[in-house]
UniProtKB/TrEMBL annotation:
GO molecular function, one term: L-aspartate oxidase activity
Protein name: L-aspartate oxidase
Lineage of the species this protein comes from: Bacteria, Bacillati, Bacillota, Clostridia, Candidatus Ornithomonoglobus
Classification via PANTHER family: L-ASPARTATE OXIDASE, L-ASPARTATE OXIDASE, CHLOROPLASTIC
Family from the record: Belongs to the FAD-dependent oxidoreductase 2 family. NadB subfamily.
Provenance organism: Candidatus Ornithomonoglobus merdipullorum
Pathway membership: Cofactor biosynthesis; NAD(+) biosynthesis; iminoaspartate from L-aspartate (oxidase route): step 1/1
KW Endoplasmic reticulum (keyword) present: no
UniProt cofactor(s): FAD
GO biological process: 'de novo' NAD+ biosynthetic process from L-aspartate
Catalytic activity field: L-aspartate + O2 = iminosuccinate + H2O2
Domain FAD-dependent oxidoreductase 2 FAD-binding: 6-370
Amino acid sequence: MKLTTDVVIVGTGVGGLYCALNLPKDKDIIMITKAAVDESDSFLAQGGICMLKNDEDYDSYFEDTMRAGHYENRKESVDIMIRSSQETIADLISYGVDFKRNEDGSLAFTKEGAHSTPRICFHEDETGKEITSHLLKAVQELPNVKIIEHCRMTDIIEKDGRCAGIVAQHENGSMTEIDARFTVLATGGVGGLFENSTNYPHLTADALAIAIKHGIELENIDYIQIHPTTLFSRKPGRRFLISESVRGEGAVLFNSHMERFVDELQPRDVVAAAISEQMKKDGRPYVWLSMKPIPKEVILSHFPNIYRRCREEGYDVTRECIPVVPAQHYFMGGIKVDRYSKTSMENLYATGETACNGVHGRNRLASNSLLESLVFAKRAAKRIAETFDDYDMIETDTDLAAYRGCDKDYGKTVLNEMERMRKYHEQHNTENKR
Ligand SMILES: Cc1cc2nc3c(=O)[nH]c(=O)nc-3n(C[C@H](O)[C@H](O)[C@H](O)COP(=O)(O)OP(=O)(O)OC[C@H]3O[C@@H](n4cnc5c(N)ncnc54)[C@H](O)[C@@H]3O)c2cc1C
């Protein structure tokens, strides 16, 4: 089958949806997703989304983001994200997103590790679901957007150094060519490549493998964030996240002797390393997290999802500690993009977790990723609109049969490249220290 459209967007998380919402309404858009529309990491986000509270907070927010990122962040991108945050939150509210409010009606802010002040908007502990379900509803109401579920991109179509669309495979094995003037990759993170991850297992970094295959520039793909606290389980499958805002609200970590061993509000990489070290010392596959310092009414109102899920696993967090373990959580590196989310290939954009615009440096500051995804998805949409008439549709002559099975080693390709980059960084850092 062959489809033709103005823009094809791969992925229906916040990156893909917000890009679609910001493209001109007179352009035809096809969105595809490997799973069901509501099966994306965007639905899983718990803690919240950052916002610049006021002009006085700019320097502090900027510094917190840079410090968490070990000062390897692209300053221009951090600046763009922070300065666009108020407009983004206002836009979300206009789509019906309901953030927690103070009694006077102003936005309520919570705090997470490595933030020097509360500046995170939230909706209970299901902020991602609240945001993404409203964006999805708005996209589903657009007559110019068609969403195809359970349809997997297996490659892009490259012609004369430009991207001319994608090849995709449906669950029943049939293949479709989607020709498009512009292609946007919004395929999310890499958790599906790891045994222990908070991500959906179908997020297997396909876009990265495709980028490697076509010589599209990547950046820091070995920069992978391990979240310090996921609920320990002996069962296989996705790990349940215990949001950092739990520690922001007062929860503490204990070793096997019920002694504290780390400042719980340091950046994620520092806390995760301390927990791993402590697990080795204790000879146990977890440490303990106590939410008892948080008043019961706050647990029930701010963290109802965590409370419910822990109850299902047999723990009452208002009365007892829970076992927690670090797990793969977020991907700071990705397909290298410029300030407009454009990749190194003509007509190809990337947004969300699969893209690297440098906001996060070596380590992401909590609750910066939903914001970063939204801000740079909108910038991609605006850029595509501005340059739309500069490009013609590319005539293609694609032999779909040649693409069958082309993605079978994609996971291995990405893991090998991550390892190569890790070694490169290790060597480079050692040389710099000499
Ligand atoms: C448990 C959890 C909690 C989090 N909490 C927070 C938080 O509190 N605050 C915050 O800012 N961030 C948080 N994050 C991170 C944030 O949710 C993600 O970074 C963000 O949602 C990524 O959005 P995205 O659109 O890039 O990707 P996703 O939402 O993951 O969407 C990816 C999409 O791509 C599709 N896809 C992938 N490969 C293919 C393919 N080959 N073909 C077709 N479709 C494909 C998927 O099906 C999916 O639709 C959390 C993440 C997790 C996992």
